[in-house]
Write a structure and sequence with these properties.
436 residues; alpha/beta; Rossmann fold; 15 helices; 9 strands; 15% strand
């Protein structure tokens, strides 16, 4: 049991299981300490480890209230679903649905194009690498890593690459990039577990792309610093400047506990976490498209897990994304409601939106633009029947849009990951649509 528990918590943490509640949080924080797990008698995760079909209508993660809550939308299509008969014109539907999604998100205005500063540039592993930064009107400066083939000439296609959550908010863009042979053991292990050892942003750049990887809101350079919150919120932890495994772990434990605070505060500010993600990612897209070495008509985006959340909203809302790959983040609101919301971060949810768009229909707003979804059949963060249902929804949307061939969904064996075989399919998809 301890081994299964540790493996589940390690995998499920990619989308922030640590925010679900005290017991689950402690389980993630102590997954390397089986004695503590047994002592605290933490939740039994065996049911979550097995990706099974939930067929008993009386059993849900909210008990007997699940059937009732699900019935509120179960028998009707969401009001802005393109699958409804009254939506016949693709452009008219898209405009109306995007407007409603934008209203529900409450996307904040964060100013114009920020000034970009190149802190360092150098060559590594056949790539030209730039460490860049820009200052938004709030918070510390955003740090990002840009990669492209060494000695590349002219304008290249580009990819906005999104890092995962991973229960590790101390780091952002470093999770999917490699800029020297001297790398942190934590980042090496992270990539071995979830990316077959590859820094996938480097690998796609080598194929002839300009790749920009920004730190997301509350990650890496954009993380909430302990010294910036009142002592009563620090839970006894002290701000540490040394980058040791112990200090990184202590910060990540605290950051997981703090996510519900951030989410509630954003609601009180009249916005949502996905909206802030989108606002900041759109600024990164502005920066990428403004570069002289980028062909702004050939830009894609993609990412795993927490990066998949960002992919869904960015690709669904911004038509500059001509091609997209969503990895390890596709299911339905029903799946979150009845089965899996406890395995996901507060960063996922938009109040009231399920009345108007099912989760896959956010990504479907981009139809007929090329869209690839990569799933893992044993992904602990979703149930397979609802992953299948999300695929069917997107298939129906693209078919009605007259672009059935522009959507593809693939399934790979194993748990939550973006492994080497999945990367090959993703990179070939980008090549097909952005290099043609």
């Amino acid at each position: 049991m301890p081994n299964k528990r540790r493996e589940f918590l390690k995998l499920a943490s990619l989308t922030g299981i640590s925010v679900a509640g005290g017991n689950i949080l402690n389980g993630y924080a102590s997954h390397n300490n089986p004695e503590k797990n047994q002592k605290n008698n933490l939740i039994n995760t065996t049911a979550a480890v097995s990706n099974t079909d939930y067929t008993n209508n009386d059993i849900s993660i909210i008990g007997l209230y699940g059937s009732w809550a699900n019935s509120l939308n179960e028998t009707k299509l969401p009001s802005f679903s393109f699958r409804r008969e009254e939506w016949k014109n693709l452009e008219s539907w898209r405009n109306s649905a995007k407007q409603r999604l934008t209203e529900r998100l409450a996307i904040p205005d964060i100013g114009g194009l920020p000034k970009v500063t190149v802190k360092k540039q150098y060559a590594y592993d056949g790539l030209h690498i730039e460490e860049v930064t820009w200052q938004l009107p709030y918070g510390r400066a955003t740090e990002a890593i840009l990669l492209k083939p060494l000695n590349a000439k002219g304008k290249l296609p580009a990819v906005l690459a999104f890092h995962d959550h991973g229960g590790n908010k101390y780091f952002g863009c470093k999770k999917i990039t490699k800029t020297s042979d001297d790398q942190l053991a934590l980042m090496k292990e992270h990539r071995e577990v979830y990316y077959s050892g590859f820094a996938w942003a480097n690998e796609i750049a080598k194929r002839g792309y300009v790749v920009l990887v920004p730190d997301a809101f509350t990650f890496g350079s954009r993380r909430v610093m302990l010294q910036d919150v009142p002592e009563r919120i620090r839970n006894g932890r002290k701000a540490e400047n040394t980058e040791t495994p112990e200090n990184i772990k202590a910060y990540n434990d605290w950051a997981g506990e703090h996510e519900h605070v951030m989410a509630k505060s954003l609601f009180c500010a009249g916005t949502t976490w996905p909206a802030v993600f989108f606002a900041e990612d759109r600024k990164a897209l502005d920066i990428l498209c403004a570069r002289e070495d980028v062909d702004a008509s050939k830009v894609g985006c993609g990412g795993l897990s927490g990066g998949g959340i960002r992919t869904v909203f960015m690709a669904g809302l911004d038509p500059r994304i001509k091609c997209t790959v969503d990895v390890g983040f596709m299911t339905t609101w029903k799946d979150f409601l009845l089965n899996k919301s406890f395995t996901h971060t507060w960063m996922t949810y938009v109040p009231l939106l399920p009345n108007e768009l099912d989760f896959p229909e956010i990504l479907g707003l981009r139809a007929p633009l090329p869209t690839l979804v990569l799933n893992n059949s044993e992904d602990q963060l979703y149930t397979l029947p609802e992953m299948n249902r999300a695929e069917n929804i997107l298939t129906e949307v693209f078919k009605k849009a007259g672009a059935e061939g522009n959507f593809k969904c693939s399934y790979y064996p194993g748990p939550h990951k973006f492994d080497s075989q999945m990367q090959i399919e993703a990179f070939n998809w980008f090549d097909r649509w952005l290099k043609a």
